[in-house]
Design goal:
The chain has helices spanning 21-29, 57-70, 87-96, and strands at residues 2-12, 16-19, 36-42, 47-53, 100-106, 109-110, 116-122, 128-138. The chain is an alpha+beta fold. It is elongated, with a radius of gyration of 16 Å.
Length: 139
């Protein structure tokens, strides 16, 4: 049994879902592990991770609009607004999603479904650099 850790930085230009599947698969390809478990952890409280539809852009757009409705930006609705009106809604959106994923590795490939991709969900409006910690355990 081996374990490998690393991290990748993702630059986000705006709010929204950003596909990081290829970057993670690229890292996995160099690890020489065929069977195991990959854990991905987002090291931020105003961004999150999702496994989501990777074919229809409309699905991602609908998700973004849905989260904007259930955790809207407001100048008056929240006490926590240290970084602006998108500060607390970003934390709410992250709380409603997840900051880590665990994905099996089978036959040296992530066990994602046909239409699934791994997405960083940026909840802030301005550009950010987000760090994803990767931990692979297997053989």
């Amino acid at each position: 049994m081996r374990q490998v850790t690393s991290s990748i930085t993702v630059r986000t230009p705006r709010q929204g879902l950003f596909d990081v599947t290829d970057r993670i698969v690229g890292w996995l390809d160099g690890q020489g592990i065929g069977e195991g478990l990959l854990t991905i952890f987002c090291r931020h409280s105003s961004a999150s991770l999702l496994i989501q539809e990777n074919a229809a852009p409309e699905a991602r757009e609908d998700l973004e609009r849905y989260f904007a409705r259930i955790a809207p930006e407001s100048d008056t609705a929240y006490a926590h607004d240290d970084e602006g009106p998108d500060d607390m809604p970003a934390h709410l959106r992250a709380a409603l999603t997840q900051v880590h994923l665990a994905i099996p590795l089978i036959g040296a490939r992530l066990a994602l479904g046909t239409w699934q991709g791994i997405y960083l969900f940026e909840h802030r409006r301005r550009p950010h650099e987000r760090e994803l910690a990767l931990h692979l355990l297997g053989e």
